[in-house]
């Protein structure tokens, strides 16, 4: 069955700004990590330090330990020069000339807590970053992993809009972890090399909204039965909480998350230099009636070129998507509405 969920013709949301090859010369690309001292942030910093496509890596954290992290990383040969920015007054300088801002800050999930409950703890640093971006750098790409992704990306988008610097083509929620889990779990079941199989993962990033499309597996010589798809979907959706429980709430996914962000960043760096790349990402997307949606997304030097808009689904996947769509809409509304709650709270104190 052809997915006919999209509410508007695909051209409606196409970014028509031209991508120029070598838009940003290799030597000039600057990346900032917000929340660098955290488990995700520090592992990510180590991976990005090895990336020759980045010239400057700016590490920001409220925590002074970011200075120690930068000193260590900066004495490794190769890759970008590394600078530390510690404390709230350094947030603006940390992002001022940056091309790609990676928001990995704040609380991870504890056992028994649902992702959507994380918005109260995680909204404040996102708001501070959006304010700083509006004042200092409204042209950077913003890529977020902070939970709950389904709500935090809309929350950040409305804030940026209110601050007069929203570009819907440049705000991304990173969902490469779902893709990584899908490929590796399916690889185990099919006894295939996970790096050689591709499976689109659409929807959102939560237990009820991740929708892997095994019927679209490539190469199509592989086949996932409905029983296998059902079992794998459950495993992929529960993978986050499984890690949280196995680590007794001390941390959530850290190494796999840093690895997945690194995959995303590698593609975006090529996009910044003029290539058109496909990343798995939760972005503004009018095609499914949910305002925001995740899936394979084409990105170029000016940001999003084309969000995902159509797939062939079998009946099993169609039912999963039918159930996921209202949940994504609910999460998007939670994020959008939280802007008013948050701003009125801040005004009072
Ligand atoms: N979208 C996804 O697939 C995933 C998202 N995450 C999210 O990534 C984020 C970071 O996770 P981790 O690095 O494991 O967390 P962590 O606890 O190791 O680090 C948290 C970071 O936030 C900062 N921070 C914590 N409390 C703060 C406070 N009160 N004020 C100012 N800064 C504070 C710390 O300095 C540190 O940089 C969390 O929101 C987590 O839920 C994590 C894994 C997967
Ligand atoms: O489950 C969590 O809290 C972290 C996360 O999003 C994931 O690992 O998928």
TrEMBL record:
Residues 30-173 form the Lactate/malate dehydrogenase N-terminal domain. SUPFAM superfamilies: LDH C-terminal domain-like (SSF56327), NAD(P)-binding Rossmann-fold domains (SSF51735). InterPro entries: L-lactate/malate_DH (IPR001557), Lactate/malate_DH_C (IPR022383), Lactate/malate_DH_N (IPR001236), Lactate_DH/Glyco_Ohase_4_C (IPR015955), NAD(P)-bd_dom_sf (IPR036291). NAD(+) binds at residues 35-41, 61, 122, 257. GO terms for cellular component: cytoplasm. It is an enzyme of class 1 (oxidoreductase). Pfam families: Ldh_1_C, Ldh_1_N. One of its GO terms (biological process) is carboxylic acid metabolic process. Its EC number is 1.1.1.37. Belongs to the LDH/MDH superfamily. This is Malate dehydrogenase, mitochondrial. It comes from Papilio xuthus (Asian swallowtail butterfly).
